[in-house]
Amino acid sequence: MNARHDHSHQREFNLEDREFRFLVSFLSRETGIVLSEHKRQMVCGRLVKRLRSLGMRDFAAYCALLDSPAAGAEVEHLVNAITTNITNFFREPHHFDHLRHQVLEPRLSQSPKKPRIRIWSAGCSSGQEPYSIAMVMAEVLKPSEAWDALILATDIDTNMLKRGADGIYSAEDAAHIPENYRKRFVRRLHNDSDHVQMADELRRLIRFKRLNLHEKWPMKGKFDAIFCRNVAIYFDKPTQRALFNRYADMLHVGGMLYLGHAESLIGMNDRFEASDKTVYRRIR
Q1: Are residues 269 and 157 in the same domain?
Q2: Which DSSP string corresponds to 69-93?
Q3: Residue that finishes a domain, picked among 82, 114, 135
Q4: If both were cysteines, with which of 9, 64, 165, 252 could 208 make a disulfide (CB 3.0 to 4.6 Å apart)?
Q5: With 70 as the cut, is the pLDDT of residue 151 above it?
Q6: Which residues hold S-adenosyl-L-methionine (predicted)?
Q7: pLDDT tens digit string along 34-76?
Q8: 105 in a known ligand binding site
């Protein structure tokens, strides 16, 4: 009896070809995310919890919901479930050295009067990347009151954005922060030795906002640097080309674009030149 029940339970949540094709098309249209066939089991596993939460017995019912006027907030739940959020503080540390020496310090020497600097962390996940940027920024641009400095941190996943805005992380996560930054910018929580919180000085530098990179961007001003690491790997080549061109539009000439270790602009866009490993400078 238990064996039959388990077998029935497995069949109940099979993701059939028709439903998988619908989800692939839906996500591509709504977010630009491209899912290949080998991601089918991952999609199934991550969405089963949503089906159970909604009291649905199969993926056909779930797809019908997404295809109806009642989809509403479920699209957000779908995206939150599908997107992968793997990040840590000072991941790919050479990027932060480059930011300091090639973007921030030159600006410090060129602009003695309250200069303006804007950095965008696109696909910021749970916030470790923008906080890493903020630590470098606060260290270089001291006193910070003398600067008009801001980091825009965006992601499509609202759960991750809330974590970032709270600025609370496990002590294990904080171990990735270099000691000099950790001493200055990380605060122990009262009665909780397992978690830490980012200093108010950092939190004031960052604005966390939800943004779907596939849609219209509301920002008006240009950026000095954009971090978009391990995001473009979710998109097909035409979407990547369009995205990189939009980034060029949003950067000052000479501004920097930081990509993930598996990403490249080679053969993708002639508005950038290589500045360092997976770092590109806008040239036109």
Answers
A1: yes
A2: TT-TTHHHHHHHHHS-----TTSSH
A3: 82
A4: 165
A5: yes
A6: 85, 87, 91, 129, 155, 212-213, 229-230
A7: 888 888 888 898 899 899 999 998 999 999 999 999 887 888 8
A8: no
Per the structure, the complete domain to which residue 46 belongs is given by 2-82
What interhelical angle do 59-66 and 40-54 show, nearest 10?
A: 80
Q: Which of 4, 17, 40, 46 is catalytic?
A: 46
| Domain end position, chosen among 82, 116, 137 | 82
- CATH number of the domain residue 141 falls in: 3.40.50.150
Which candidate in 155, 157, 281, 282 is catalytic? Answer: 155
Take residue 246 and report the two structure tokens written for it: 């939009």
Same domain for 202 and 74: no
Please state the pTM of the whole predicted model: 0.81
pLDDT above 50: residue 122: yes
Burial of 29 (0-12, 13-18, 19+ CB in 10 A): exposed
Residues 142 and 252 in one domain: yes
155 is catalytic: yes
Q: How many domains does the chain have?
A: 2
Q: How far is CA 263 from the centre of its chain?
A: 15
* Contact in structure between 196 and 171 (CB atoms under 8 Å): yes
- Enumerate the β-bridge partners of residue 275: none
Q: Which two tokens stand for residue 65?
A: 């919901």
116 carries a ligand binding annotation? no
